[in-house]
Amino acid sequence: MHRLIVAFLATVDAAIAVAVGLAATLAPLTLLWVFGLGGAADWGVLWPTAVAVWQLGNLVPLPVTLPADYLAATSIDAAAASFTLSLAPLAFAAFTAIFAARSGVRASRADAWLTGVVTGTAVFAALTAGAALTSRTDIVTPVLWQSILIPILVFAVPALVAAVVTEWREAGGGVIARVRDRVEADRHGWADVPALIARGTAVVVVGLLGVGAAVTAVTVFARSGQIVALYQAGNVDVIGAIVVTLAQLAYAPTLAVWGSAFVAGPGFLVGEGASVSPAGTQVGVIPGIPVLGAIPESATPWLLLLALAPVALGAFAGWIARSRLVDAPSRQRRARRTDAVARGVRRRRGAARGRGEDGSPRGTPGGIGADARARGRRPGGARPGRPASGDRGRHRRRLCGPRRGTGRVRLGIARARAARGRRP
Length: 424
Prior knowledge:
The chain is mainly alpha-helical.
């Protein structure tokens, strides 16, 4: 794919990542402004409010200073007028990271991963800076460099990681592919180590998040009566109940992380001096948000058995890594045997037709076989006795591409069959 097309698609991905995040905030707030506040609504604060929520969802801490007239109307102590809101609704960050990773994978498969990542990050940075500069208010005053840099990192890091991983698994040329080929050519068993580390880490992280989400779901179901009571105590209308519910859904990944921390043992903090863990629960005054009614007021010692879940996940990940590492030599021997058989078949067919191993006429300088012999390597780009480049990952997609070092032995067999079909 042309680099200009890759840059255009990366630009579209970055714009959609920002637009969808802001629209997910603007839509319910607009409904609240129209049906809840009516003609008394100040439309000038709608955009700053939406941007502030989006920034909070992308891990930007928000310093908040309540105005004096609001303090007088609500009888709030002046000492509590200023605070920092840092509990992020991780649904926004998760969406941004997933969209960035998708963009990085597509750019890598188009053979222009660096162009895609740099272009997407630059466009996302420009849109983030524009949103931050046009939403400054006296109530919410985030630090300017934090409101720009932190969302950029939420987008850029997943895009870069996804692009590099895809290059490692699928690319047939380039710097990352050459590093991969050097690692795979190592004779001391290090070829499978990077993939095993990534696989084991993914098993533990995904498993721990899954267990935390399951614990959270069970707790919400068990304490649903308290949650409904908080809804009723809030005395909100239908629009308010919808907005509160959507806000709590945005915090669903955050609650899953809390559940993972609870399962792992350390637990989590809710406000100042309030901690929740299997060893004990100390809950003070917490906000009257309905979903916080799921927090247990006390803990039983039997919950300490949940700490066995991370140990089991670690053991399972270690078993997966060890089983594949032990099986690596046998897989390499099978690959060498298959390669030797394929070379023998090509040699016999080529000798019967007066052609070389790669299916090209003898004595001609062209062909993949001649090119490989000129480099002192067998077709496929690997040293004799080693699997060809691309033999190792199950998901390498360009195994038979036109680049050097990406063909497998079946490319030579295909050429030999095509040459046999052209004989008079």
